[in-house]
Automatic annotation (TrEMBL):
Name listed for the protein in its UniProt record: Metallophosphoesterase
Source species of the chain: Nocardia suismassiliense
Signal peptide coordinates: none
Transmembrane annotation, as ranges: 12-35, 47-68, 80-106, 118-137
Listed PANTHER family: PHOSPHODIESTERASE YAEI, TRANSMEMBRANE PROTEIN WITH METALLOPHOSPHOESTERASE DOMAIN-RELATED
Swiss-Prot/TrEMBL keywords: Hydrolase, Membrane, Metal-binding, Transmembrane, Transmembrane helix
Residues annotated as domain Calcineurin-like phosphoesterase: 162-329
Lineage top rank: taxon: Bacteria
Amino acid sequence: MRSTHADEDGLLKYVPRVALFLAIPALLFVVPWWTLVGAPTEGTGPLFWAGSAVFLLAFACLPASMFLGHGPAQSDAASIVGDTLLGVAWVVFSWSAIGNIVGLALPLAGVHDPDRSRIVAVGVLAVATALVIWGIIEARRVPRVRTVDVSIPGLGPGLDGLRLVVVTDTHFAALNRLRWSEKVVDVVNAQRPDIACHAGDLADGSVAKRHPQVDPLGKVDAPLGRFYITGNHEYFGDAQGWIDHMTSIGWQPLHNQHQTVTRGGDELVIAGIDDPTGVTLPGHGPDLPTALAGADPRLPVVLLAHQPKQITASAAAGVALQISGHTHGGQIWPFHYLVRLDQPVVAGLSRHGANTQLYTSRGTGFWGPQLRVFAPSEITVLVLRSAPART
């Protein structure tokens, strides 16, 4: 009897998780179902039943494919289906909500239901379809190059004009993007980088499954160094394996470490720290004091830290420039409003404290849904410029 009660207690603890796992898809599908099916058909007729069947099938498919793709089975095919369906559902949900708000103004123009609901449904369907197609094209294209001049107080004249090329959030995963990876490397090399950086979230999955997509990074040419840090997604899998693999293809992981680079007789400290999720793994987790231990305190520091919110510690330590990714610029509008609740910056160059700047990349690849809507990917060229030292 005790064993039976123990088993029941064990099952009950999973009920809230399962409920949440089903509640999110329900919310994503109920609003679009009402907008595109329920309201315009007035709840009756062949279109109502056919449309309801499509939404019910999608609702069942999303949690099932996400579990098969990202759960113990790690099915790449299921992952592609689930991730794509999640992205499409978010776009349709967002524009259904917007469409219903805009539709509140139609009665003022004398348009009432069911015509009002049908106009909203057609508008939402047209906009969502166009954005999904455009979003897939944007996500899968080779990123545009974004060049930004960054003034670094105390940077020696020998380092003025140093070109630091940043890629981040490549998220090599179930969708094989080997050709894309090779083209990204060609673009990076065309920028003539002095230093190349990868700011984390390299891949989703094991080294054994994903290394062919990552291996072209070994052809990046940067004479002053190629530096890599872990992102949170490495810690969902084999972080140490990726650190070792990046070492094997010629990149230098900065695992709470720094390297001093020299050009024209002047020096600059390039440091890197782990992602905060690394604390779950022994010997990992961000440790800025350790990363800067032994560095000349007179030299400016460029720090690789995956998440923008790590800027608090960087500013307190007097870091000149922190380079981050993680946000993807929101990836699929209007998701950036939710990202902003967790991170101080979503994209671009910003100042924090008296002496610290933060550059947040929108990312080079994409996570999960192969869509980017109003958040284009980027390969970033940060051109460092000398500036008078601040007191």
